[in-house]
Amino acid sequence: MTQIELEIQAIAVVVAVSCALPGVFLVLRRMALMSDAISHTVLLGIVLAFFVTGNLASPLLILGAAATGVLTVALVETLRRTRLVREDASIGLVFPALFSVAVILIARFAGNVHLDTDAVLLGELAFAPFRRLQVAGMDLGPMSLWVMGGILLINIVFIGALYKELKVTTFDPALAAALGFSPAVLHYGFMSVVSITAVGAFDAVGSVLVVALMVAPPAAAYLLSDRLPVVLVLSAVLAAVSALAGFWAAWLADASIAGSMATMAGAVFTAALMFAPGRGVIARARRHARQRFDFPQLMLAIHLLHHEATPEADEENREAHLGRHLHWPPDFAHKVVRRAEGRSWLVKEGDGLLRLTEAGRAAARTALAG
Amino acid sequence: MEPAETLPDAGMNLFRDLFFDYTLRTVALGAGCLGAVSGTLGAFAVLRRQSLLGDAISHAALPGIVLAFLLTGSKSTLVLVLGAAVAGWTGTLLVLAVTRSTRVPEDSALGIILSVFFGFGLVLLTYTQRLPTASQAGLDRFLFGQAATLLIRDVAMIAAIGAVAVLVVAVFWKEFKLLAFDREFGASLGFPMRRIEVLLTTVLVIAIVLGLQTVGVVLMAAMVVAPATAARQWTDALGTMVMLSAAFGALAGVSGALISASAANVPTGPTIVLAATTFVLASMAFAPRRGLVWAAFRQRRNRRAIRADAVLEDLFRLAQQHDDVTHGHAVAVLEAMAGGRRNVARSLAELEERGLAARSAAGLWSITPAGLSVAENRWTQTAADA
């Protein structure tokens, strides 16, 4: 691994983690698509700040962009407040409009500057290490690593300091208001952090990847756990995994790193969707399959209990008889008997007579007692 | 532009030699058609609170475009649009499936599908770029849209496929209406609502991929949301709304194309989007009944009426305390009674206009007999009230 590859991976991981942390709250607050809106409208902020400073490297660009991010949130909120437009539609109105203004401004007034929409939308992580931070002639590493490291720090400090407030406003806004937190202040504070993160990440990896990293790892973590701290840590880990896997996949296929990281984030989400314990597709399919047999097993136990120690037991308590009495097809009856046997609710004796065990008897009695 | 493609209409002779106008016409026609189609389908998307589905579909279409090119080696618009449609459709069904079967909220599902499909499309695109044999030039026109590359046969395709989409809406009008407003009722009537939803989504996907070449992936969302939102302000009837929405979409397409052609370096897609956004803002401001400007007027009028009422009540109380009803009172007195209320003089002028108050030559105010009867009606307790 060369130093440049190492640096790209470091940047990728830092970007991924700093997107995933605020992303958790975006997902939980049903505001995932604000990340889409903000990551597009920051372009307008960058363009306007560029017109003011005339310098693409100016830190004002980040501030201007973050300000447009917050402006986006405010505009969406204002449109929604008129009650003429629903929230989803107001997002869909605001961000294309602001993005259009930015694209027109670039095309018209900044055509000869390196500020093309491609780079902005798609990002190119591969070039990030070439912009170095130099202090007094000393090379301190890639600029993006420092910027994103700072943004990651802001995220951690913000979430750490306002953890309780964020948690309450996320899960119970009414309670939060009653307790005297100001949901509006917190909302805009949080959205400012999201905007700053989006700007920094957007510079490194482009706007669409920002959406992928802000939504997919948190959503995957949300499928894996019910506890907020666990979800936060998990989503950071999953984001880092997506970033590294994405880097190597892109390296192998010689393709866009940002796109490949987004693809891997999708793969991680799909894996969580499939294999999440208890909630995943596979776990649910298995539970459904099991539940299909739960009730019949109880029926069988009750049937056996009812007839055992009676003269008909010898006739009734046989697998072959279940078809007539319980209307079970033979292979279904066989499966139920096998499963009940597996749970040691009953034993099949040599001559085919089904005899309840103590456990089976207890289960049947509990079911009968309701 | 291939010279063989000329407009058949003899009336267009004038423009035939003018390359620029010919292009402009093609672009304007194409943009108008796609605006009408996306406006029609957008109306349903907005009503069903799926405004951002359009954004997800247009992003999700990218890998389909590249795959279609990789598989067929063809860059013909029809092939690419087909690929886009398949990918967009798959993405949408995945969103529906994830939302229905897990606790992942719908907006998160949309965000994931949107960004992951798009990211995968980027991977494919960069991969294709580096293939020695194939030049992918032209594929990225779908990213940002290049209306200027529209050929007349593209426009014909947009018009034909768009017409089919609109026809589907017309044929399944009743079903789509049920889906938009009362899905459970539709299901209870025995309609296969799940299948109707898939059909409507399919038509929406078609409308969106038709627009990608002109407006681009990012801005297509606006073409779904904006015309429909503008139309919604003017009417409460679905039929009117859909037609208005189609009209707004077409108008935005044509005017955007014209404006962008009339100035240098103004890209068409963003101009169309800004035109559509202007329609939304104008409709929100001026649409009858819902318009914000009218609402502000109404509010001001109501406030003034309330203030005038309060002054009338004050005059009435004063009159009750004097034997002579016509006894005049200075404005200052009424202002003192008004407490924090402002514009007492103006309220008095209004009351005078309505004949409820009168001003003496000395500038003192009193209640008129007409005002007295109104006030007595309103503020005197009857025996029953007490």
What distinguishing features does this structure have?
heterodimer; A: 370 residues; mainly alpha; ABC transporter involved in vitamin B12 uptake, BtuC; Arc Repressor Mutant, subunit A; two-stranded antiparallel sheet; 4% strand; elongated; B: 386 residues; 2 domains; 17 helices; disordered N terminus
Strand order of the largest sheet of chain A: 1-2
Order of helices and strands of chain A: HHHHHEEHHHHHHHHHHHEEH
Distance, first to last CA of chain A: 66 Å
Shape-level CATH architecture of the largest domain in chain B = Orthogonal Bundle
Low-pLDDT sequence parts of chain B = 1-19
SS-derived structural category of chain A: mainly alpha
- Main sheet overview of chain A: 2 strands, antiparallel
- Return the average pLDDT of chain A rounded to an integer: 86
CATH superfamily of the largest domain in chain A: ABC transporter involved in vitamin B12 uptake, BtuC
Number of helices of chain B: 17
C-alpha Rg of chain B (nearest Å)? 31 Å
Principal-axes shape call of chain A: elongated
Main sheet: strands, sense, barrel of chain B:
2 strands, antiparallel
Strand content of chain B: under 5%
Helix content of chain B: over 70%
Q: Tell me the total number of β-strands of chain A.
A: 4
Helical fraction of chain A equals over 70%
**What's the CATH C level of the largest domain in chain B?**
Mainly Alpha
How would you briefly describe this protein structure?
The complex is a heterodimer of chains A (370) and B (386). Chain A is 76% helix and 4% strand.
Task: Describe this entry's structure for a reader.
The complex is a heterodimer of chains A (about 375) and B (about 375). With about 375 residues, chain A is mostly helical. Chain A has two domains: about 5-280, ABC transporter involved in vitamin B12 uptake, BtuC; about 280-370, Orthogonal Bundle (Arc Repressor Mutant, subunit A). Chain A is built from 17 helices and four strands. Chain A has helices spanning about 5-30, 30-55, 60-80, 85-110, 115-120, 145-160, 165-170, 175-180, 185-205, 205-225, 230-255, 255-275, 280-305, 315, 320-325, 330-340, 360-370; strands at about 130-135, 140, 345-350, 355. In chain A, the strands form two sheets. Chain A has a two-stranded antiparallel ribbon with strand order 1-2. The radius of gyration of chain A is 30 Å and the shape is elongated. Chain B has helices spanning about 15, 20-45, 55-70, 75-100, 105-130, 140-145, 150-170, 175-180, 185-190, 195-215, 220-235, 240-260, 270-285, 290-320, 330-340, 345-355, 370-380; strands spanning about 355-360, 365. Chain B has two domains: about 10-290, ABC transporter involved in vitamin B12 uptake, BtuC (Orthogonal Bundle); about 300-380, Winged helix-like DNA-binding domain superfamily/Winged helix DNA-binding domain (Arc Repressor Mutant, subunit A, Orthogonal Bundle), CATH 1.10.10.10. Chain B contains 17 helices and two strands. The termini of chain B are far apart. With about 375 residues, chain B is mainly α. In chain B, α2 (about 20-45) runs antiparallel to α10 (about 195-215), α3 crosses α4 and α3 packs antiparallel against α11 (about 220-235). The relative contact order of chain B is 0.12. A two-stranded antiparallel sheet of chain B has the order 1-2. Classes of the chains: A mainly alpha (about 375), B mainly alpha (about 375). Chains A and B meet through α2, α4, α5, α10 and α11 of A and α3, α5, α11 and α13 of B.
